[in-house]
Amino acid sequence: MKKSSLAITIILIFCVLLLSIVWSYFRNTLDSLDLPESSASEVYDRHYVLIPEAENSILWQAIYESADLEANTNNAYLELLSRDPGSSYTTADYLRILIASGVDGIILKPDGTDEVRELINEAISEEIPVVTVLEDDSDSERISYVGLNSYQLADTYTELALACLDGADGEIMILVDSASVNPIQTLAAAQLTRYIEQEKADGQEINVSLYYLESTNDFDSEEGIRELFVNYSPLPDVLICMDEILTECAYQALIDYNAVGSTDIIGFYYSDQILEAIEKGIIPATLVVDTDEVGTCCMEALNEYHEFGHTSSYYSVSLSLITLENVSDYLTAEEEEED
Q1: What is the rounded average pLDDT of the residues 297-323?
Q2: Which of 106, 170, 251, 304 is most exposed by smallest CB count within 10 Å?
Q3: Are 202 and 239 spatial neighbours (Cβ–Cβ below 8 Å)?
Q4: DSSP secondary structure string, 217-272?
C-alpha cells in the first residue's frame, strides 16, 4: 500500500514538473514572437458597423478603408459586415441583427423599402445612430446623409450625355435598379430628363427613357442588361449607369454582343475593367465620388452625434470625372498600389 502511494506521489510530482516546463516554454515562445500590433487585445470606446451594398465592390472597400482610418483616430472600431454572395440575408435582416447586438452606430446604403426605413427608426429609438451613405432615406430618422445630391448628379450626367450626341438626334437610356427603389437615383433620373430637355440644341430631338432592372444581386443585374442588349434594337445612343456594378455589366455586354461603337456608356465609379475601357475609348467617362471624403464624413457624423447629441443632417461630397484625358493618372495609381 505504501509503495502504491509513493508511486502515485512520484507520478504527480513528475506531472507538475512537466506542466511547469511546458508552460514556461510556451510563455517564452510567446514573448519571443514579433506579433503584429493588430493581434493584441484592444479596448475601443465604440463599435460601429458598415453594411456594404456589395462586399466585393471596390467602391465600398475604399469607403470602408477611409472610414476605418478615421475611426482609429477616435478609438472606435469599425466593422465591415461580411455579405456572402450566396446568402439570403437582406439589408433588413442585418439591421435586425445589429440592433439586437446593441452596436454604437450603423452606416448603410438604404434600399428605399418601408421595412428598412422602419428598422432605421427602430435603431434610433434604441439610441443607435444610423448614417445613410450614397443614397438617402429622408423619410427615416437617420441622423445624417453622406453623399451626392441629385441636382449635382443630373447636371453632370446631362453634360456628358449631350457631349456624346454632339448635337445629333438620338436616344439616351438611364439604367435604374428598380429593386432598390432608391429616391436619389429616381430623382436624379427625373431631373436628368428635365435638364436634357432644357439644355439640348434648338431643333435637336432626344428621347430619354428609363430601363428598370429587377435585380437583387450582381447576377441579376448582369442578366437584366444582357436582356436589354438582346431584345432592344437598335441600342440607345447613350447608356447612363448609376452605379459601379451596372457600369461593369453594361461594358461586358458591349463586348460580348459586339456592340462597341454602337452605344456610349457613361458610368459611375471605376474598376480595372472600367479604366481599361476608358483608356481604349470604349467608355467616354465615368463619375467618381471621393471615397476618402465619404468615409471621413461618416465617422464625423457618428462621433459628433455621440459627443454632442446632434450632427449635420447632410454631408455633401466631391464629384469628379475620369475621361481619356486623365485615366492614365488612375491607372498609374492602381499599379503603384499593386507594387
Answers
A1: 96
A2: 304
A3: no
A4: SHHHHHHHHHHHHHH-SSPPSEEEE-SHHHHHHHHHHHHHTT-BTTBEEEEES--H
